[in-house]
Amino acid sequence: MLIDLKQQPADALLALIKLHNADPRADKIDLGVGVYRTGQGETPVFGAIKAAEKKLVETQDSKAYLGPEGDMGFVEALMPYVFGKDSPSMGGRIEGMQTPGGTGSLRLALAMVKRAGYKRLIVGKPSWPNHNQICADLGLEVLEFNHARADGTTDMDAIRTALADAGEADAVLLHGCCHNPTGIDYSNAEWDEIAGLLAERKVLPVIDLAYQGLGRGMEEDAYGVRRVLAAVPEAMVCYSCDKNFGLYRDRVGALYAMVADPADLAKVMSNAHALARANWSQPPDHGGAAVRLILEDEALTAQWLDELDQMRDRMRQVRARLAEAGKTGGVDLTPIGIQNGLFSIIPFTPEQVQAMRSEHGIYFAGSGRINVAGLTMGNIDKFIAAVADVTG
Ligand code: PLP
Ligand code: TYF
Prior knowledge:
There is one protein chain. By secondary structure, the chain is an alpha/beta fold. It folds into 2 domains: 127 residues, Aspartate Aminotransferase, domain 1 (Alpha-Beta Complex), CATH 3.90.1150; 232 residues, 3-Layer(aba) Sandwich (Aspartate Aminotransferase, domain 2), CATH 3.40.640. It contains 13 helices and 13 strands. Helix 5 links the parallel strand 3 and strand 4. The longest helix has 28 residues. Bound molecules: pyridoxal-5'-phosphate and (2S)-2-hydroxy-3-(4-hydroxyphenyl)propanoic acid. The site of pyridoxal-5'-phosphate has 12 residues, from helix 4.
């Protein structure tokens, strides 16, 4: 019976939004869920998206079904940004489809991993919790390795060991850039080595690219994806437009598969299409259509890239200010300056996380992950003082 089902825990990050909302203090700070915020603390719709939506309303003449692959114009317009304009892997070896956000793409990719007979998914820890949740739901065994060292650098020895023990029955999930939750990314030299190891061990790479453009730049953030794809015969890329176009609730993403022989692409993608049909039939159209209109229009593309630059610049400023604070109480904020994207982890104890909430009205995940975009030039000094207070 339905009532025999067991109570499930609420999503911890979404629960945090409620805690923050219920706090009456005017100077409270929300560093929880991963959405970008401006210096005024807002998450506005991009100007380029507003313009594209206006155009969409005026020109869209049908909302008839498109099929499980969604809007292929959207899927293809993104490809030069992800894979590079002159990439050899673009030569017929890659095909994509639209998905409901990066989550939908991950769900499909990992179901493909399972369906293709892979036994394990190797994942660096900590990772975005949904990676493990999707694997648990699919019955895919997860093998974890340590992603980062305490000093804010990647634990290359751990991934070397994990890959040395891996083989053809394994897939590995890698964050393309702006690692969630640590903000600690592989350097280009590390990607070079990882690409070589993946090829040598014949492990299938699944690259989660949910924050392209929020780290170092659109091109810079694609280094890992492109480097890995140049080294291996097969791979999948799970893309989200929900951060870099600010579309979050519109659920805009894409799944790309690369195979060695273009003749195999249709067969491979027919499986992804079948899985999509069994899950959501077709992806929501609106956000993807707006992204396509932007990417097909030079002026709108320039406007979007400019808005993305402003986001990235602001996050770099916040990071620089935190790094400048250096040793603060019992923690060192310096590594935050070289980390990327929305997130960094400060090694708070659970008691210190609680004290930040109760004594200072500052809310972030229990892991100590902060959303740096929740900090502004107006509240950052309060934050630094609170960190010194609870860790000192
Ligand atoms: N992958 C990572 C690492 C994420 O942090 C997120 C969440 O924001 C996603 C994928 C999924 O994003 P989306 O909201 O597009 O489903
Ligand atoms: O990690 C984050 O904050 C983002 C947003 O169930 C998010 O990835 C968080 C929780 C969730 C869905 C998205």
